[in-house]
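Possible regression after last week's pipeline update?

I re-ran a chain I had predicted before the update to compare outputs. Posting the input and the new output here so someone can diff against the archived version. Not blocking, just want to make sure nothing changed silently.
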Amino acid sequence: MKSSDMHHDQQLARTILDSLTAHVAILDESGFILETNRAWKRFAKQNQLRMRPETKEINYLEICENTDVTTDREGLQVAAGIRDVIAGRLDEFVLDYPCHSPDEKRWFYMRVTRAPGPGPVRIVVSHENITSLRETEIQLRQREEALEREKKKLEEANTALKVLLQRHKTQRREMEAEVIETTHRLIRPVVNRLSGMNLPKRASVLVESLDERIAGMTKPFLRHLSNVESLLTPQEIEIAAQIREGRSSKEIASLLNLSITTINFHRRNLRRKLNLSHTSTNLQTFLMGLTD
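New output (post-update):
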């Protein structure tokens, strides 16, 4: 090859090397810097590195190994990686690392490779500034953490709401049971007595109206009961209403003029139609829950 052609190739290689935004240095097999590109020199000068800006004929491995491990733990890792590439134990060594200055936070991506071809060992070390990428990753992670915190708050609020709703249902059920129990214990007996008396027609109409209003108090329950999948007979609905109000089979039998055996038969049918045959669920408790 003519010397002019060689010179042209060298100039072209230098132009290409200087055009790269990455900070590039060429090392020999001992770790000495043989050549650097413009980006490397500019970075060394701007950051006042403890070496000449061009950093030629300086042992890069010694610089990495002599760093203060308390502030630059990556130095020894970098030196070990470069030695592995020089020895052929690794084809490539890469590392993401922070390189913060007093004025800004920066991150770099380091890549160490062995130049191909015959001749002396040549190691290419490049440092690419990935600050914008890393800042984007940090922002995304912060957003994800913020979303996770909001999600946790919503879950806690949802749990609290469920507790309040359950408490409301329980209180409503207890109030309803108390009203129905009080009505049938204190009011129903009086109404029944009045119904059995020989009252004037106008009074009888009022007693009948009162009885209907008392019965109307259980209508929400009856509406839920009629919506269950199993079809209940009118008598089963009536017996279910009596069970829900806490009456025993004997009391229901007396009230409806039926035998206890018949009432117990209907109880079994109710449990079967309400899918309670093979559970220990109390029938009265289940029926009271139908108003929820």
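Follow-up from reviewer: compared with the archived run. The beta strands are 23-27, 33-36, 92-98, 107-114, 123-129. Marking as no regression found.
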